Amino acid sequence: MCAQPKPLILVVEDDKDLAQLIADQLDAAGVTPQVFYRGSNAVKFLEKNHANLVLLDVTLPDQNGFEILREIRRMERPAPVIFLTANDAEAMKVQGLEGGADDYVTKPFRFPELIARIHAVLRRTETSRDTRLTDNAALDTKPFDFSGAIVHPERLEIEFPDKAVEKIGRKELGILYHMSTNSGHVVSRQTLIHAVWGIHADVRSRSLDQYIVKIRDAYEQHGIKLDNFRTIHGIGYCYEPAVPVKK
């Protein structure tokens, strides 16, 4: 039986001795730590990689933790964040939690309590994923227009202008949703695979192409040619919604 992968936790802390101590405790607790001494380096990592959680100091040499939190929250798949800071002012705690942090732990702290808080946030994160249909779309994702048809994530259906309704699979939904939310931009094959299947997915481009063929066939059956969902050879895809004609 394959062992479950260990959660990856980023430690963003400029005190190198403390950062190493936290990393050692996390490793002993069965998670994988990765240390960053500057916030900008952690943000660059998260833009291209998945992490299960971020332990974030408020005071860092290049940015404050609240700015970093905002950058993380703007990402397509934001990691949960626990502030870990010596600043115990109530106003700072409120600012952090209202800004989207999942917890706020003040220094000095006891490691058993920190580990317990980390596990609590990880459990909440896993529970919130129960409604996910793909890595990027969930049951509560709102219906959206894609080339004149309405996609209903909650029903896994496409409603066409001729009033016909067709069922779609989860992956087709994820592809449509990602292309819709990135309309007007060229999306590489690898980016689209990571968005729908997950950052660690081992999915070949040929498999992605087969799902896109299914989408095109479904639209063509109802008189819609997806000329605005273009293949950019050697790169990926681009979706450009039709501009409504002003009357």
Notes on the structure:
The chain has helices spanning 16-28, 39-48, 65-73, 90-98, 111-128, 170-181, 189-197, 205-220; strands at 8-12, 32-36, 53-56, 81-85, 103-106, 144-146, 149-152, 157-159, 165-167, 186-188, 229-232, 236-239. It is α/β, with parallel strands linked by helices. The protein has 2 domains: 8-131, Rossmann fold (3-Layer(aba) Sandwich), CATH 3.40.50; 144-239, Winged helix-like DNA-binding domain superfamily/Winged helix DNA-binding domain (Arc Repressor Mutant, subunit A), CATH 1.10.10. The longest helix has 18 residues, at 111-128. It is elongated. The model has no long low-confidence stretch (mean pLDDT 88).
Which descriptors apply to this entry?
2 domains; elongated; four-stranded antiparallel β-sheet; Arc Repressor Mutant, subunit A; Rossmann fold; 247 residues; five-stranded parallel β-sheet; alpha/beta; single chain
Task: Describe the protein's topology.
Blueprint lengths: L7 E5 L3 H13 L3 E5 L2 H10 L4 E4 L8 H9 L7 E5 L4 H9 L4 E4 L4 H18 L15 E3 L2 E4 L4 E3 L5 E3 L2 H12 L4 E3 H9 L7 H16 L8 E4 L3 E4 L8
Parallel strand pairs: 1-2, 1-3, 3-4, 4-5
Antiparallel strand pairs: 6-7, 7-8, 8-9, 10-12, 11-12
- The helix content is 25-40%
The major beta sheet can be summarized as: 5 strands, parallel
Indicate the CATH class of the largest domain: Alpha Beta
| CATH fold category name of the largest domain | Rossmann fold
Q: Got a strand count?
A: 12
Using only C-alpha atoms, the radius of gyration works out to 21 Å
* Unreliable stretches covering 5 or more consecutive residues: none
* Number of discrete helical segments: 8
Number of domains: 2
The structural class is alpha/beta
CATH architecture label of the largest domain = 3-Layer(aba) Sandwich
Strand line-up in the sheet with most strands: 2-1-3-4-5
Q: CATH superfamily of the largest domain, please?
A: Response regulator
**Average pLDDT score:** 88
Element-by-element helix/strand order? EHEHEHEHEHEEEEHEHHEE
